[in-house]
Amino acid sequence: RAAEVSPQTIYAIFRSKRGILAELIEGASFDPGYEALVAQAMSIADPVEMLQFAPRIARHIHDAKRAETSFLRGAGVVAPELAAIEKGLESRRYEAQKGLVKRLAKAGRLRHGLDEIAARDILWAVTGGDLYRMLVVERGWSSDRYQEWLGSLIGEGLLEKKSRPRRPR
Fold first, then answer.
1. In three state form, how does the secondary structure of the chain look?
2. Among 50, 102, 130, 138, whose CB has the most other CB atoms within 10 angstroms?
């Protein structure tokens, strides 16, 4: 009403309340800050250096959609269509990580015995919202601490020792 837009116009654009909510969540998750981080990461030739952006990108997404994630987590139990929104976003995130894992494998940087599928599953799981929620929201970690810890975890879990980046002291 305040924007002087009719409900029919809104529904013509978004089709449903679910469509409106999906757009709000996607807008929070994949905003210009996210796009800038991805562009920075994609400009790097070395896949191990590129991997260092994964914790920054995960933190950005989770910080940006913190309120929406809390809402979806509770609402998904009683409204399965809302849980489907989150599932779609997770599928998109999983697909987006494919190129990085392929580059790591092609460069021979994946930990010995770790195939591309397992590496992608691990990267997707540890950069997901559950660990962020448990550590930042429930345990009170700062986003900085979460990002630093996640970077270490990803390096230890995915990379051969010789290719793990050294952390500045």
1. CCCCCCHHHHHHHHCCHHHHHHHHHHHHHCCHHHHHHHHHHHCCCCHHHHHCHHHHHHHHHHHHCHHHHHHHHHHHHHCHHHHHHHHHHHHHHHHHCHHHHHHHHHCCCECCCCCHHHHHHHHHHHCCHHHHHHHHHHCCCCHHHHHHHHHHHHHHHHECHHHCCCCCC
2. 50
